[in-house]
């Protein structure tokens, strides 16, 4: 079963392999994941793209359960449907949140 650690490593590897492509996403995202296996981490797509474990400043914070996050990234759930069901919340820059769909496709998912 995929874990949040697995997804963080996958994202870090993708960023390291093509930092220029990562910068095209722009912005700093915080993922605040609760429930079993939950944690908070930052994905920075600015000048020095990277994944950082733990809390920190971000332009867009996306909150949901760890299991819902895994389902989104792996294409079993869509962020839009989770949002309308009240299972995903967004604070900060909504324009960055709208890019989550494209980010989701890059990390392996594909739902809206």
Automatic annotation (TrEMBL):
Q: What is this protein called?
A: SCP2 domain-containing protein
Q: Name one GO cellular component term.
A: cytosol
| Residues of the SCP2 domain | 16-103
Lineage of the native species? Bacteria, Bacillati, Actinomycetota, Actinomycetes, Mycobacteriales
UniProt-listed PANTHER family: SCP2 STEROL-BINDING DOMAIN-CONTAINING PROTEIN 1 (PTHR10094:SF25), STEROL CARRIER PROTEIN 2 SCP-2 FAMILY PROTEIN (PTHR10094)
Origin species, per record, is Mycobacterium gastri
Q: Which InterPro entries match?
A: SCP2_sterol-bd_dom, SCP2_sterol-bd_dom_sf
């Amino acid at each position: 079963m995929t874990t949040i650690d697995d997804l963080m490593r996958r994202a870090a590897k993708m960023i390291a392999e093509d930092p220029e492509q990562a910068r095209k996403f722009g912005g700093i995202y915080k993922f605040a994941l609760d429930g079993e296996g939950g944690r908070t981490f930052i994905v920075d797509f600015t000048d020095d793209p990277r994944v950082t474990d733990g809390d920190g400043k971000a332009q867009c914070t996306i909150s949901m359960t760890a299991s819902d996050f895994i389902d989104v990234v792996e294409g079993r759930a869509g962020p839009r449907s989770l949002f309308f069901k009240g299972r995903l919340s967004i604070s900060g820059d909504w324009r960055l949140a709208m890019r989550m769909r494209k980010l989701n496709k890059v990390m392996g998912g594909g739902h809206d």
